[in-house]
Structures are given as structure tokens and as C-alpha cells.
Specification:
The complex is a heterodimer. Chain A contains 15 helices and no strands. By secondary structure, chain A is mainly α. By secondary structure, chain B is α+β, with helices and mostly antiparallel strands. In chain B, the strands form six sheets. Chain B has a five-stranded mixed β-sheet with strand order 3-23-22-19-18. Chain B has a five-stranded mixed β-sheet with strand order 13-5-4-20-21. In chain B, strands 7-6-11-12 form a four-stranded parallel β-sheet. Chain B is globular and about 65 Å long. Classes of the chains: A mainly alpha, B alpha+beta. At the A-B interface, helix 1, helix 5 and helix 6 of A face helix 2, helix 9, strand 7 and strand 9 of B.
Chain lengths: ~325, ~475
């Protein structure tokens, strides 16, 4: 397999994951701004920060309105992480690595691109937003389904999973990073409506508001939410789950290629942290420090994978 | 443009009668519901969009990927017509390979005075770097797409020999797939020779040309300029269908005197490179130094006999439009036979008498750039305005040797499907020949390109042409 192809696959799936995550962030932000928040502007500001695009947004707009934030996050080609940019990038990478994809996967990506380009051609009004977000989710699900149903379980598949896992871990970690202060155990907040709203935002941003309740019926506390997002390996967007997905797939590559590389050392270190720690020790260390160090380490792992598998010459 | 001429229509030929090859199809068509066919036609378009069978148009910012319109009426060729055509193509391709070997070695044909020396020496398509180089297996042009036009029942002409990197074969294959999906019943009624073996044959043919030092199964790869190239779809399609890697210049490098591709596990040697990158961009060390598309040093590896490049560098000297006019003599010189397929009468504007004739008759002629392709930089006299003719005449006077001229041919027509029923449109044909030391394989049929505008003679996809499925009937 060409190094370039591995890189194309990896980025294709990172971008697809990113478009889905952005849609999910918008959905949570929109709902909270609509229903619960007394300060919608700060809600949108926090969505933009979580998506990692606030600096670019600030260069373009003064103030945080729903219309501007939506446009920037969904349709703006100046924003490299907007849904339209992500899907465009995913499809460009798919074209580049087309020989490594099954027809079904290629067609699913190509159709997503056609459909979303049409859906995002004109500004998305609040009335149309739910339908558009639904379409984004549906199309990324179609691609995922085609991948699972038709791709060989070989190195190509491994790189799809690695791209997804890295992007997803980064996304969940950034959500925690932006909202960490609401998860800090502070006596003054407990029981107030404010933190309930914030906690719900967090859970909605990772589509976990229902599953969390299923699992934690009687214990809705900052510590249990943080624990769920970081350590619960049943939840497919937790850091622990993503890390295990990475470990598995990097492990398949090591076995397949019969080579143990620096990225394998790094994933092992990441796994150890998540396995050996518990939420109490994380709070002792400081949630913020823990998360920023995870984000840094996760990024470094991504770069190491690029290097170890020769994505670029 | 509408010309007051009678054209040979391959389905109806002058009278209301149906020509033999189309008889069964016409019967089927007469019973079909136009609305159903209309719906099928739209289905085909969305199929092409969905599968991304597109081409890129240079110099257009918006809508960079376009579809080549597909017409659902097949172009049908009788087996006996095809037999003659394929013999003619085979002879011509043999002649071209012999010519290329000779022109880069002893140059007997120049000594014999059949082709003028200056035509070679001053030609940019002639690569001095190739002098004395013998490609593995002795093959120069492995894949040839000969453009053929028809003007009457038995009148076939070769319009161009595409001996460098002919494109369009993916459309030939996808058009057939589309027809099979849309009208399976037709193919059980009418016996059409299959084309689907092309990728398998291409791979076998390329592998048979591997360098001598290749031990074991040759590693084949397709070299593309990248996703922005107009024919990128075809490059990835062929790599995919052959089951080989699609590489770009930056994936390759010289390792221990061989060309190797960067894989996730290190560098892996390539034995045969099917390149879809032009000569000039192939090797920045030996050709255009600013090229980002090629592989520095690949020509040196090639000269040492350590990789097969298909088609070989320098094959352009054989399909140059100035050489074209000598092709019948070239074929006879090397094969000892008269050319089976005729050439179109060609005026070389470098010759003062010809130039005078061309300038005097510009409105009746088609004038082409010697090194042009894709229908760019070409003048169709009868369709041009007075102003266009004057501008072109000035260009001709300025650099006459850049141009050749040909009479406007009465290209045959085949009907296309329109909302108002069948309507005749001009067509050409590009069959594809694969050459290896063991055999020559010509896929029955090829790519039929059709000018979609009524009366238009320009079939190029970049100029609004479409394509048709091409059927060669079983006997």
C-alpha cells in the first residue's frame, strides 16, 4: 500500500468524522441557545471555541449570532473545518485514493458530497437547520455503513479506523477542555440550573444525553459525566474507547507489517494513562491539565503515525 | 453550422431503409416507449454523476468536473467491417513501432529519403535522449488509440494516430456497463462482442513488456499527474481495474538504480510504469526542469534497461500531425504492404505551394496545429466567421510550419436520442490497440465520440462532444 494512499484514507476519515462532529456541536449549541440559555451569544462562542475555529471567526465577524455562527460552521469555505470544507476535503482525499476504496464507499462519499453541497448552497435558516443537520448525519452514517459492510479488513481498513479514532478523541477532549470549568466539583454550583444546562450541552455534543442517563440513572454529577466521557469504554466517543480503537488498529498494522514502530510506543503510553487512572486522580491532578496534556499527546501520536507509515515523502 | 451536404448515416444510409448492422436494433427501438427511454437517459446521467465518471476542464474555475454526455443509441459495426478495420489498425501500429525503432536507431527511412530529415531534426516531439535506446521487448508504443472517421459504406480514414498517451478507454468500458444495466434485454437479443477484458489484457500486455532483470511477477503501476488532471478518473479507473497502484511523481524515487514507490512498509520496486504524464514532465533532470509531476532520474533508469515506460518517451514523433501525411509511405516502407486504412489528404503549410492553397481555400478546410490536441487551436473553415478566418490566416502566415490543413470531411452520422426523436449527429471512432512482444490485441469497437450539436463536426469532449457505446456484432 502506498504511503500516500494510507495518508489519503486517514485524512478522508478524519474529515468525515469532523463534519459529523461539527454537525453535532451545532445541534447541541442550537438547542441550548434556543431553549435554556439566557445568553445565546456565549453559547455560540463556546461552540466556535470547541470546534477550534473561534480565532478565524473573530477575524471575520464582530459578535456571536446564530446566523453568523451557523454560516461559518456549516458553509464557509474560508473555515477549513466547516462542514462544507470537511466534506470537500474528504471527497478530494477519496478521489485520490479511489483505488483503495470499494465502489460502495466511493459512491457513498461522492453522493454525500453532492447532496451536502446542494443542501449548503444557500444560507441555512433556523427553520431548515434540523433537516440539514439530519442530512449530514445520515450521509456520514451511509459512508460508515458502506465501510463496515464492504471493505476488506486489511491495512486500508485499519487506516480508516485510525483516522476516525484520532479525530474523535480530539473532538471529545476539546469539548471537555472548553467546558471543563462546569465539571469541576464546586459546592456553589451543585444543584443550580446553570450547571444542569451546561452538563446537558456537553452530553448532547457527543450525542450521549440518553445513553448517559441509561447508565447513570441516579448519579448525574460532574464527576460521573467526566468519568463517562474519559473512562467509559462502552461509550463510543469516550477517550478510552477511541484510544482502544487506536491501539487495536495500530496493533493490526504492527502484526500485518511485522514492525513495531514509535507510534506503537506512544499509543501504549496513552492506553496506560487511561487504564491506570481514575476520575478522582484526574481531579487531583486538575481536569484542565489532564485534558490539555491528552490533546497534545494525541496530536503528537497523529504526527508520529504520519511519519511511521510514510504518508508524505 | 449546417452544411448543405448529404452525409452517410450509419443507421439509415440515405434512404429510409435500415442498414444491416442496425436492423435488429431498429426493430427493438420501434417498439420502445419514448418516455421510458427518456427516463433511462436521465438514469444514465445520474449514474455517471454518482460514480464520478467525470473529466476536468482546464481554465474553468466553477464546475471543474464535468460529465461527458452519454447517448443511449449505440453505434453498431458489422463484424466484416470490423475485421477490415482491425487489420488496418494492426498494420498501422506495427508500422509505427517499426518507424519509432528506426528513427531512434539507424534512421533508414531518412536515408531512403521517404521522410525529410528536417521534419525529424527540428521536431520537438523527437527526443535526442532516446537515440540508441532499445526499450524492453522492443516496443515503443504499447497502447495506441487510432482515430478513425467514416464517410461512406466502405470509406474509412485514419484521422490521427494517438501513440503517446491516448485516453478515453474508461468511457468505452463504462458506456458498455451502463448499456448492460439499462438494457439487458438488448444484449440477449443481439450478440455484441464484449469489451470488458480490456483491463485484464492491458495488465497482461504491460507485464509482458517487463525489463529483463525483473524476476518473478512484474510490479505494474499507473503514473498520473494527479487529481486535477482532466483524465484523472480514467487513471484511477484503470489502476483499479488492473489491481495495481496509482502513483504520482512524488510517490516515486530512484533506489539502487531502480524506480521504487513509497509504501507504508518502505520502498518497493516498480517494473512497468504505465505513465499518463507527458514526455516533457516525465523527468525534471532530463526534460523540463520545472516539472513537479515526474521522477528525477527516471530516464537514466530507463536507459539502463531497469524499468519499462509505457508508452516509451519520444513516441510523439510518430503521431505528430506533420509526420501523419507520410504515414502511408512509412507503413509501406516497414511492412512492405500498401496501407489498408487510408489517410485524409493533408496539406503541410510549411510547403509554400500548400500554404498558398490553404490560404486561398481556408473557408473549406480544417486547419490543425501540428502539436495540438483535444480540438484546441483548430479552425473549422466552413463554420468560421469572416473575422475568425482572417485572424487564423494571419497566424498561418506567421508560422506556417505549425499547421496542417485537411479538407472538411463528410463525417458519417449516427442518430442520437433527443426529445423529438432520433436526430443524426457526426461521429468518429477511437479503437484501442495493446502491443506486447507476443501479440497485438485490439478491443472490438472502441470509443465513439459524437458531436451533440446539429451539424457540428467537432467531437472532442472538451468542446461539447458526447460518447456512445460502440458495438461490434458477432458474426
Amino acid at each position: 500500500m502506498l504511503g500516500k494512499t494510507a495518508g489519503g484514507i486517514y485524512w478522508m476519515f478524519r474529515f468525515l468524522e469532523r463534519s459529523e462532529n461539527t454537525a453535532r456541536l451545532i445541534e447541541a449549541g442550537f438547542r441550548i441557545a434556543l431553549t435554556k440559555s439566557k445568553d445565546p451569544a456565549s453559547e455560540w462562542k463556546s461552540v466556535l471555541t470547541t470546534a477550534g475555529v473561534r480565532r478565524n471567526y473573530d477575524l471575520k465577524y464582530d459578535g456571536y449570532t446564530a446566523a453568523n455562527a451557523l454560516d461559518f460552521l456549516l458553509r464557509d469555505t474560508d473555515n477549513p473545518s466547516s462542514v462544507i470544507s470537511s466534506i470537500e476535503n474528504a471527497r478530494t482525499n477519496a478521489r485520490m485514493v479511489r483505488t483503495a476504496l470499494t465502489t460502495e464507499v466511493w459512491e457513498a462519499v461522492n453522493e454525500s458530497w453532492m447532496a451536502l453541497r446542494a443542501a449548503l448552497k444557500t444560507p441555512v435558516t433556523e427553520t431548515k437547520l434540523p433537516a440539514v443537520l439530519g442530512e449530514i448525519r445520515r450521509h456520514t452514517a451511509l459512508v460508515r455503513g458502506a465501510v463496515h459492510g464492504t471493505m476488506l479488513r486489511n491495512d486500508i481498513f485499519d487506516f480508516t479506523q485510525i483516522g476516525i479514532a484520532l479525530e474523535r478523541a480530539d473532538n471529545t477532549a476539546r469539548i471537555i477542555d472548553v467546558k471543563y470549568y462546569t465539571l469541576l466539583p464546586s459546592a456553589s454550583y451543585v444543584g443550580s440550573t446553570l450547571d444542569n444546562v451546561q452538563w446537558e450541552t456537553i452530553l448532547r455534543s457527543v450525542s450521549a444525553h440518553r445513553s448517559f442517563r441509561w447508565l447513570n440513572d441516579h448519579d448525574i454529577s460532574p464527576a460521573s459525566i467526566a468519568e463517562f466521557l474519559i473512562f467509559d469504554s462502552r461509550f463510543p466517543r469516550s477517550l478510552s474507547f477511541c484510544s482502544r480503537l487506536l491501539e487495536d488498529n495500530l496493533g493490526y498494522l504492527a502484526k500485518d507489517y511485522k514492525r513495531h514502530l514509535p507510534c506503537h510506543e506512544m499509543i501504549e503510553a496513552q492506553r496506560n494513562i487511561l487504564r491506570d487512572r481514575d476520575i478522582a486522580s484526574v481531579f487531583d491532578e486538575g481536569l484542565h491539565d489532564f485534558i490539555t496534556s491528552f490533546i497534545r499527546q494525541n496530536n503528537a501520536l497523529g504526527l508520529q503515525i504520519e511519519q511511521d507509515y510514510r504518508f508524505v515523502g | 453550422m449546417t452544411l448543405d451536404r448529404q452525409y452517410f448515416d450509419e443507421m439509415h444510409s440515405g434512404t429510409d431503409n435500415v442498414r444491416g448492422p442496425y436492423a435488429e436494433y431498429k426493430t427493438w427501438f420501434a417498439q420502445e416507449d419514448a418516455a421510458r427511454l427518456s427516463k433511462k437517459s436521465k438514469e444514465a446521467e445520474s449514474f455517471f454523476r454518482r460514480t464520478g465518471i467525470t473529466f476536468n476542464v482546464y481554465g474553468q474555475a466553477a464546475a471543474q468536473e464535468r460529465l461527458i454526455p452519454f447517448d443511449l443509441i449505440p453505434r453498431i459495426i458489422a463484424n466484416r467491417e470490423w475485421t477490415k478495420l482491425s487489420k488496418g489498425i494492426e498494420q498501422r501500429v506495427r508500422g509505427i513501432n517499426a518507424f519509432l525503432h528506426d528513427i531512434y536507431h539507424r534512421q533508414e527511412i531518412l536515408r531512403a529519403g521517404i521522410v525529410p530529415v528536417e521534419l525529424i531534426a527540428q521536431n520537438e516531439a523527437f527526443l535526442p535522449q532516446m537515440i540508441g535506446v532499445s526499450p524492453p521487448g522492443g516496443i515503443y508504443t504499447h497502447i495506441v488509440g487510432t482515430d478513425i472517421v467514416r464517410t461512406g459504406e466502405d470509406d474509412f480514414f485514419v484521422l490521427e494516430d494517438n501513440a503517446r498517451t491516448p485516453s478515453g478507454v474508461s468511457y468505452m468500458l463504462e458506456n458498455r456497463e451502463t448499456m448492460l444495466q439499462m438494457f439487458p434485454e438488448l444484449f440477449s437479443k443481439i450478440k455484441v462482442q464484449p469489451v470488458s477484458d480490456y483491463p485484464k489484457n492491458l495488465r497482461r500486455s504491460l507485464a509482458a513488456c517487463a525489463p529483463r532483470n525483473c524476476d518473478g511477477k512484474p510490479t505494474v503501476a499507473v503514473l498520473t499527474p494527479g487529481i486535477h488532471n482532466s483524465a484523472y478518473f480514467e487513471h484511477s479507473f484503470l489502476a483499479d481495474q488492473m489491481g495495481v497502484e496509482l502513483v504520482e511523481g512524488h510517490d516515486l524515487q530512484v533506489v539502487d538504480g531502480r524506480i521504487a514507490m513509497r509504501t507504508t512498509e518502505g520502498y518497493q520496486v516498480i517494473d512497468v510504469l504505465y505513465r499518463r504524464v507527458d514526455d516533457d514532465f516525465l523527468d525534471p533532470l532530463n526534460f523540463n526542469p520545472s516539472s513537479m509531476l515526474g521522477v528525477p532520474g527516471i530516464l537514466d533508469v530507463y536507459r539502463a534497461g531497469n524499468i519499462t515506460i509505457a508508452n516509451a518517451p519520444g513516441t510523439g514523433i510518430a503521431d505528430d500531425k506533420a509526420i501523419y501525411s507520410y504515414m502511408p509511405d512509412i507503413i509501406e516502407f516497414y511492412t512492405g504492404e500498401k496501407a489498408i486504412l487510408r489517410n485524409v489528404e493533408t496539406y503541410r503549410c510549411s510547403d509554400p505551394d500548400s500554404l498558398k492553397y490553404v490560404l486561398d481555400n481556408l473557408s473549406d478546410l480544417v486547419v490543425k496545429e501540428v502539436h495540438g490536441s483535444g480540438g484546441y487551436g483548430m479552425l473549422v473553415g466552413p463554420a468560421a466567421s469572416k473575422k475568425e478566418l482572417a485572424t487564423f490566416a494571419a497566424k498561418l502566415r506567421r508560422s506556417p510550419s505549425n499547421y496542417i490543413a485537411q479538407p472538411t470531411l463528410s463525417l458519417s452520422t449516427v442518430p442520437i436520442f433527443t426529445k423529438k426523436g432520433l436526430a443524426p449527429r457526426h461521429v468518429d471512432l477511437r479503437p484501442f490497440a495493446l502491443v506486447s512482444p507476443n501479440e497485438m490485441n485490439i478491443t472490438p469497437g472502441g470509443l465513439t465520440r459524437v458531436a451533440l450539436k446539429a451539424g457540428s463536426l467537432v467531437v472532442n469532449s472538451s468542446q461539447g462532444g458526447g460518447t456512445k457505446d460502440t458495438w461490434v456484432l458477432e458474426d
